[in-house]
Amino acid sequence: NTVMAAQMTDAHRRFLQVLMSHGILEGSAARKLHQRCCEIHKVYYAHDKLDDFISTINSQLQPLFMQIRKGMSEDDGRAHYALVNLAETEVTKMASDYTENELELFRKTMDLIVFSENGFASSTDILNLADQLKTKKMKKKEAEQVLKVFVEDKWLSERNGEYTLHTRCIIEMEQYILSNYQDVARKCNICHSLAIQSQVCSTCGIVMHLPCVRKYFRAQTAPHCPHCNDIWSSEIP
């Protein structure tokens, strides 16, 4: 069976096709898909071997500069799997889908989100940028439509008029954001992946994702920073 798992089968191909059509899958959906693909193609199925199953696909994707990556939703801490293109920088990859001024609006929105304290940008602030674009100014109505498309395409998430980066965007653009926003982009002290929505230790400045904060301090009555051991001043979500 181990030999079977190491070779690409039709089950692997079907899994990849479904992931490609969705762009990203939540962990439980990926596990169900794994089981379904193995059953359809009569391939040995081990419920706890999804990551091995994905590594087999990744070894085939390597020459194509593609990779299935695992990431975490900053809202609820759930695992997600996304197909990532490693060959191009992420914003240039978006260039085939959007016009220049749409891309500029996305970059400016990303600036607002990454530089914000809570990882969100209000629609008002984003729409105010629309008529300041260097490429070609956008009317507010038009900008609203473009934001809607960014949400549909899973680059942005929207909640009550506030926008943040979608889980897919964070998984795909982690390296881009870390290298382009070196002064402000930080990794979570607990899970070591890029943290956009996070809390900061007021003493030593380390950051933690909200789900990581929740999990880490769950058992502590008086929460202390895992890095400097000072009292954690933010409210535990």
Automatic annotation (TrEMBL):
RING-type zinc finger-containing E3 ubiquitin ligase that assembles with melanoma antigen protein (MAGE) to catalyze the direct transfer of ubiquitin from E2 ubiquitin-conjugating enzyme to a specific substrate. Involved in maintenance of genome integrity, DNA damage response and DNA repair. It is found in: Chromosome, Telomere; Nucleus. Belongs to the NSE1 family. Residues 188-229 form the RING-type domain. Component of the Smc5-Smc6 complex. It catalyses: S-ubiquitinyl-[E2 ubiquitin-conjugating enzyme]-L-cysteine + [acceptor protein]-L-lysine = [E2 ubiquitin-conjugating enzyme]-L-cysteine + N(6)-ubiquitinyl-[acceptor protein]-L-lysine. The gene is Nsmce1. It comes from Galbula dea. It comes from the Eukaryota. Keywords: Chromosome, DNA damage, DNA recombination, DNA repair, Metal-binding, Nucleus, Telomere, Transferase, Ubl conjugation pathway, Zinc, Zinc-finger. Its EC number is 2.3.2.27. This is Non-structural maintenance of chromosomes element 1 homolog. GO terms for cellular component: chromosome, telomeric region; nucleus; Smc5-Smc6 complex. Pfam families: SMC_Nse1 (PF07574), zf-RING-like (PF08746). One of its GO terms (molecular function) is ubiquitin protein ligase activity. Its main location: nucleus. InterPro entries: Nse1, Nse1_RING_C4HC3-type, WH-like_DNA-bd_sf, Znf_RING, Znf_RING/FYVE/PHD. GO terms for biological process: double-strand break repair via homologous recombination.
